[in-house]
């Protein structure tokens, strides 16, 4: 079984990611919550959901 398709599949998946959607650490070593891919309106509605 060969996995020759795997690098292309990973590249395709990664190229669609938005860095703003991911939790990350800023240059000052402070954690920044990402958006999870949600727009601001949806995020504001979900802020009260545990």
Overview of the molecule:
The protein has a two-stranded antiparallel sheet. The model has no long low-confidence stretch (mean pLDDT 82). The longest helix has 10 residues, at 6-15. By secondary structure, the protein is mainly alpha-helical. Helices cover 34% and strands 8% of the residues. The protein has helices at residues 6-15, 40-46, and strands at residues 24-25, 31-32. Strand 1 and strand 2 form a beta hairpin. It contains 2 helices and 2 strands. It starts with 5 loop residues before the first helix and ends with a helix. 0% of the residues are buried.
Quick overview:
The protein is mainly α and 50 residues long. The protein has two helices and two strands.
SSE layout and pairings?
Elements: H1 6-15, E1 24-25, E2 31-32, H2 40-46
Antiparallel strand pairs: 1-2
């Amino acid at each position: 079984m060969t996995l020759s398709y795997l690098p292309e599949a990973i590249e395709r998946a990664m190229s669609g990611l938005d860095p703003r959607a991911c939790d990350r650490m800023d240059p000052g070593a402070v954690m920044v919550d990402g958006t999870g891919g949600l727009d601001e309106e949806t995020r504001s509605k979900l802020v009260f959901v545990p």
